[in-house]
Amino acid sequence: MKRVTVNDIDTAYAEHGSGDPVIFIHGLAEDHCTWHVQQQALDQFHTFAPDLRGHGSTTSGQGNGTLAQLGIDLLAFIEEVTGPAVVVGFSLGGTIALWAAAERPDLIKRSVVLGTSSIVGRSAVQFYEDRIAKAADTNSAAFKDAMRADTAAGLFRAHGLLDQIVATRLAAVGDGVGYINAARAMMRLSAEPLTPRLSRVKTPVVVIGAEYDAFCPQKAASIILDALPAAEFVAIPEAGHLMNADNPAAVTEALRRAINH
After folding, report:
1. How far apart are CA 111 and CA 3, in angstroms?
2. Boundaries of each AB hydrolase-1 domain copy (predicted)?
3. Which residue of 21, 32, 98, 227 is most buried, as measured by CB atoms within 10 A?
4. Is the pTM of this model over 0.85?
């Protein structure tokens, strides 16, 4: 792991390979470990996988619970570490990538977003409110049970890895400060959708969706595709929301094609 100070946070990131720069942005309750398979497999690219604000080994700083702040963190990382790059984002990470692509098309050559939403509904707001309340004590049985339930709901076939994935996610969440901050940012997409901003994205976008994603179904992908001036869709078969756990080989191949496109 390497470290760099961007804005008010000390950002930890994993770096691998050589070639054109590609940045991998993880989802809520994850860290750089999400992308270990891809960083090893796609070593023809110079890949960077930072831990988001308050996740993994990155400090929390003064989070304000906005997508804009998380997007500015990404842009600062690009300016400081990689230079203009392809950005790959999963779920929360995909939403951050799209925000940043609309803000600074000069820094993001292409966006590849997996399991991503640009707007959330009432049920999602209630979900985030419940998880934010439970994350006040990430050592509590209530939070651990919720994390286990969320992880199980995100899997289609990798249920044999459930305990391992839950343990990794709990470690990434840590004291919960970054988790709460990011959950608040996602919750705000109800009142302040990202969708209208997508018309400002002028660089290519590939939207990747999983066949059995209950959290970001085809409807979420369609909303993004309809709003973008230049985008294409790729489906990952036999996978739920946590598609990189369910079908990592298909995700890797889809990313290889999307990055090289």
Report:
1. 24
2. 22-253
3. 98
4. yes
